[in-house]
Give the backbone structure.
Amino acid sequence: MSEHPTSDHASHPGYADHKADVLARLKRIEGQVRGLQRMVDEDTYCIDVLTQVSAATKALQSVAVNLLDDHLRHCVIEGGAADPERAAELVTEATRAVERLVKS
Amino acid sequence: MSEHPTSDHASHPGYADHKADVLARLKRIEGQVRGLQRMVDEDTYCIDVLTQVSAATKALQSVAVNLLDDHLRHCVIEGGAADPERAAELVTEATRAVERLVKS
Amino acid sequence: MSEHPTSDHASHPGYADHKADVLARLKRIEGQVRGLQRMVDEDTYCIDVLTQVSAATKALQSVAVNLLDDHLRHCVIEGGAADPERAAELVTEATRAVERLVKS
Amino acid sequence: MSEHPTSDHASHPGYADHKADVLARLKRIEGQVRGLQRMVDEDTYCIDVLTQVSAATKALQSVAVNLLDDHLRHCVIEGGAADPERAAELVTEATRAVERLVKS
């Protein structure tokens, strides 16, 4: 875990209202990754495996964009409104997360 | 499954020699995605979840690059050496797979 | 131009304090793209051209992450603090921008 | 320039037949990057600048995919058909280029 300025937020993460939806998406991605193992196990043609790897990657990126939206909406805006110094830290932290996403 | 020009290759995919390694990597990614569900379930801080989503995405992209390497090495080069027309189809197909990867 | 909820911000964009730096980075990227034309014109080896295309792409993505940081810091946090409804619109808009970045 | 196994290909790069098209695309991207400088200079709203950065990035990635297609088609397939050892080097080199693209 990173040292982050909002450890007190841990019990109410930004995605609190969408928790079931995030879990359902991740469950589906787990199924996609298990499907990939089955494809490889059955010697599926490389390009068809690659197509499914791209689909799973897209699904993960989509989860990330949704988590980021919730985070900005609830943690950054709300946490930042109370305290400008903390707002600055929250933005720096969020931008670094976007940077990791863009590069992954 | 896509209609591809090399259905006869299906029984000997490009990754045949690395099958155990590809499966081990996918198994590890499945574990990462299950770990993500645990993190969300335990209300882990958004940014820490995002960091792990980026790690799983990177791991998937890395599997894709390895599959593509095997595919070029074994299916495209070998399949293409025998028949120039087929080589052209195989390159078009491989390039489209790269396009999907780059965009995902 | 998109229809956005903050047209009144146009005269003081989030990057106002870093304008010279953003312009210098873009100038450098313009130079990279001109360098690419020279490489192609001189029949440079494909892989060397591709390496430079990747470098220019990375430089553009880095400009984007910096612009986003400034935007979150100045437009979203500050604009959002004043008005919760507007904050919601600003987050939606910023998330869509991140989505386009991640997919590009 | 990288040390690559095909320096003798430099005078006939894979994109030789599409040189005018590649140059036209790069010229257009140069225009997009200059347009970005104008936007920043005129204090255009951050999100509109970001949209154009994403468009320029996509255009660069598209040039890259095209260059890779030409490279696989002409340099890798043709160079590789003559000499299996060289084919192996060419694939390794091409895969590394894809890896840089995917991460950029």
About this structure: Chain A is about 75% helix and 0% strand. Helices of chain A lie at 19-41, 46-82, 84-103. The mean pLDDT of chain A is 90. Chain A touches chain C through 22 residues (CB under 8 Å).
